[in-house]
Amino acid sequence: MIHLLSLQGVSKVFVQGRHEVRALDNIILDVAEGECLAVVGESGSGKSTLANLVLGIYPPSTGTIAFRGEVLPAKRELVHRRAIQLVQQNPLSSLNPQRSIGASLRLPLDVHGLGERGRRGDHVGQLLEEVGLPADYAGRSPSSLSGGERQRVAIARALACESELVVLDEPTSALDVLVQARVLKLLNDLRSRRGLTYVFITHDLSVVRNIADRVAVFERGRLVELNPTEKIFSDPDHAYTRRLICAVPVVTADEVRLRDRLMKKENTSA
């Protein structure tokens, strides 16, 4: 198995006045090429800090982060920024309201010098069509699009520079349930077609079952469980994981039975 991303002994400490806050503590984690790893946990668990470290926004306090076996420098080079892209939580705030959709999608092509300059407009149209939007949306402004359409544009922008790893930071939390399902389907289709690798950051376990191959569970900066998605939802190892799953709204009879079984197990072990 090829590890596209590898974290070895990664910790992150923030200094606040005279106090130190350990946001991540000795994280050892590999992400295989082509997989979707979901990173879950409550607010303050360290999952967003992990995303920022992978993206190079913060350097780790200790440990190393490697991409394709190469340890990434604290100050990322252009080639690294091209290979690892971000899709943010709020698609409206992630797009410049003063730029047209086409200009926002063309920017990474210009920055990274991709394709023939005179044909980059055509590439923008192809990117829009790839995420299920008409090519003529290039002339529209972000404010004229729905939340789901803006998130599709944000995904297209992440793909514009032919990235290999996409960090998705709560990409569906600002969308309603129906639009969430459509965006998740799009992400699955793109991963299959392009051979992408995802690190999917979320606090909502209900979306994890539909996209992730494995789940990494974080609690207070520590990685407390890492297992295939099926095991996480059928027989989780850690008590914290069981509590998270028990808090997920249930719909089907199978989900009710799973919740009741996990709650009974949790009460027995308490």
Automatic annotation (TrEMBL):
Family that this chain belongs to: Belongs to the ABC transporter superfamily.
Name of the molecule in the record: ATP-binding cassette domain-containing protein
Keyword Transcription applies: no
Boundaries of every ABC transporter domain copy: 5-245
Gene3D superfamilies: P-loop containing nucleotide triphosphate hydrolases
Molecular function GO labels: ATP binding
Top-rank taxon, per record: Bacteria
Keyword Nucleotidyltransferase in record: no
Assigned keywords, A-Z: ATP-binding, Nucleotide-binding, Transport
InterPro entries assigned to the protein according to its UniProt record, in alphabetical order: AAA+_ATPase, ABC_transp_ATP-bind, ABC_transporter-like_ATP-bd, ABC_transporter-like_CS, P-loop_NTPase
